[in-house]
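Give me the fold.
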Amino acid sequence: MERAGSFTAISGWGVALVGFTALATAFAAARTTTADAWMRTWLAEAALAFGVATITTTQKARAARIPLFSGPGQRFALGFAPPALAGALLTLVLYRLELFSVMPGLWLLLYGASLVTGGAASVRVVRALGICFLALGTMALFGPPSWNNTLMAAGFGGLHLVFGIVIARRHGG
């Protein structure tokens, strides 16, 4: 019943792969020597993750003959995009102001908001993933900056791995 009006082309294995690359990024980012280098490392990961998610979702949609941008796919994209765009724009502002320590909380929160709003057109597990990101984003904003890379690893790495496997097993890859 849930699948009938839901966007189910999200690739669980793609989400898990994003988690794996994010864990590698967290490892690399922890070894950077400046806040700017740390941020650029994570931005490179964001670009890689976007590419992986786009390719794997497109492949799953084609294999299942699910249209990407009509019906639930369009609703998912329209829900996901505004918080993601807000995150990109706020990243530019925070970068100009050199407020690097705020970025992890912002990224985690707005990505979580993207998943919750986009997930309204998807399967329930996507919204649950978004709620977990919202919780980590809150921790990043109110916790000490020394937690930021660990929280980024936990969210973009750990949550993506765990929820990716759940999505793959419950919703066909």
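The chain has six helices and no strands.
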